[in-house]
């Protein structure tokens, strides 16, 4: 018997949510659309481009819609193979917010840059600038380049101020590279800020550092057409600063427990569109039930655990690969094998990457499917 394809095993449109085989990754379409509208309105009100990061869902259809909602704003990818999947599926304006390194990868990058209407990549120092220049020169192609500046996350990025100026000059000296501006991914604010006022202050401080760098570059005759900033939590604060031209949030359509915990003052369970529906497979004791959603279904790469979307009397306390342990001591009565429990996912980007398919649900019925086309595309 041939192995059934994902398309053959997915639930038919119109299927009740209660009949979807578990575990499954669902997205509540009304909630997702409300989240998207919120970020579109924010971008319009603050006159910034909303170029969504598609690393969260890895699906070209959703990416196309997000680009359209942003006024043909294009998309952002984190890996070159994500760019390839999106390009193959008709998206022609892509920013790669990551450094491509290695000969084969740079050949792929230059080829993509030739094919796409608009493409830019990221650098932060001579170590990734020089090989990019060489690869571009070999094919006679000009590549748009964004310089990443480290405004506090201390991941990648050159320090703001003089070091950024020096690196921008170095990029400008390369005959096949076009300096297009700065990336300032300010995600450190998520771990430092607790209140809304702190988000406002810390994001503004980070953007002031970017402004100083832009002023310095421009005073040296280097124009900075673009300033891109990051994520779901911070871009709605950073995006208010006049230096910012573009926001690149990724998780905002779906949300997750991380967003709930980091911003309890403005995110609640009703904002969380992505859930995993699971079934109780065993009730070994009065205070314990086990569901069919463990760490191969719900990624727990952060400190968060899954949170029940609709119940307060159950706690997800531990996971092995295919088992999720629930503390049911507070349940009035008891859970039974077969009971269905829906969880908000701890970290949505890595959870999506565990699934073949995202199932869109409206009013309790299956409406749409999105294959996770760039699943596993880490190269
Ligand atoms: C450079 C960059 N921009 C934007 C994002 C999107 O951020 P978020 O997932 O918080 O929406 C990420 C996420 O990792 C990122 O690395």
TrEMBL record:
<comment type="similarity">
    <text>Belongs to the DSD1 family.</text>
</comment>
<dbReference type="InterPro" id="IPR042208">
    <property type="entry name" value="D-ser_dehydrat-like_sf"/>
</dbReference>
<dbReference type="InterPro" id="IPR026956">
    <property type="entry name" value="D-ser_dehydrat-like_dom"/>
</dbReference>
<feature type="domain" description="D-serine dehydratase-like">
    <location>
        <begin position="273"/>
        <end position="362"/>
    </location>
</feature>
<dbReference type="GO" id="GO:0036088">
    <property type="term" value="P:D-serine catabolic process"/>
</dbReference>
<dbReference type="InterPro" id="IPR029066">
    <property type="entry name" value="PLP-binding_barrel"/>
</dbReference>
<dbReference type="InterPro" id="IPR051466">
    <property type="entry name" value="D-amino_acid_metab_enzyme"/>
</dbReference>
<dbReference type="Pfam" id="PF14031">
    <property type="entry name" value="D-ser_dehydrat"/>
</dbReference>
<dbReference type="GO" id="GO:0008721">
    <property type="term" value="F:D-serine ammonia-lyase activity"/>
</dbReference>
<dbReference type="Pfam" id="PF01168">
    <property type="entry name" value="Ala_racemase_N"/>
</dbReference>
<keyword id="KW-0456">Lyase</keyword>
<protein>
    <submittedName>
        <fullName>D-serine deaminase, pyridoxal phosphate-dependent</fullName>
    </submittedName>
</protein>
<dbReference type="InterPro" id="IPR001608">
    <property type="entry name" value="Ala_racemase_N"/>
</dbReference>
